[in-house]
Amino acid sequence: MLTCRVESKDGRFKPFDIGGNDLTVIAGPCSLESYELGVQIGEIMRDICEELGFKYIFKASFDKANRTSIKSWRGPGIEKGLEQLSKIGKTLQVPTLTDIHEAWQAEAAAEAVDMLQIPAFLCRQTDLLTAAAVTKKPVNIKKAQFLAPEDMLSALNKCRDSGGSACLCERGSTMGYHQLVVDMRGLAEMRAFNCPVIFDATHSVQKPGANGMASGGDRRFILPLARAAAAIGIDGIFIETHPNPPEAKCDGPNMIPTGRVKEFLTQIKKIDAIVRKEIGFTKIDFMEI
After folding, report:
1. pLDDT under 70 in the chain at which residues?
2. What is the pLDDT of residue 45?
3. DSSP string, the chain
């Protein structure tokens, strides 16, 4: 199993591997609403992950370029957003992640954060993938809602062939209008590509465009899906969280209230521990003869 090395140029945190011996949690607000809120959420997540023995990466977007409506909140923008993300990482002494939507954003983002993310809708964009890879920062590639798991090997190889390293992230597949489903077979399929696999538990319950001028979601199913993913065996879990999801400026219907995160991750911890220590990750060649 190849790993993604996360390390800091300024020594804010000890280097670690996604795909190592412990689960990595990538978590934060959907959009970076403010520096203060980012620090508030990041501090809570950092402390919970430290208590449970998880590695932690703070996540927030400086720009949500794929909002349903042109009138929707997108974020603080690249200049202000990257400045805030850099400051959050220094304040909390944790690694940070943000997504990029265009190739020209990769270099600037890599100067401010420790890991780059490719949105699901853009995971086939060769120039975007190669621009992220050449920064030498690890890349989290979201699996497109319209692609099969095996199709993601091409996206992964674009990063590898450009000298970078990447994780693949499952976030559900389109199943009719306004519906996503998670085919848990995909987690084992993508892990067979010899790369770390992340499960995006919150976007997997999203209902794209379901609220007319915004996306909906059903947070009731975040925990059941996350428990299933942990039982198969994952290297990381991605969640978005907010102190008051109904007031979040983006993706509130499929966010975990910050006050429930510890309870959520405690259950994942128990399942992950059994898989890692007692039975091992599910392999797709188990039944081959």
Report:
1. 210, 212-213, 289
2. 98
3. ---EEE--TT-SS--EEETSSS-EEEEE-SB---HHHHHHHHHHHHHHHHHHT-EEEEE-BS--TT-SSTTS---S-HHHHHHHHHHHHHHHT--EEEE-SSTTHHHHHHHH-SEEEE-GGGTT-HHHHHHHHHTTS-EEEEPPTTS-GGGHHHHHHHHHHTT--EEEEE--EE-STT-EE--THHHHHHHTTSS-EEEETTGGGEETTTTSSS-EE-GGGHHHHHHHHHHH--SEEEEEEESSGGG-SS-GGG-EEGGGHHHHHHHHHHHHHHIIIII----TTTT--
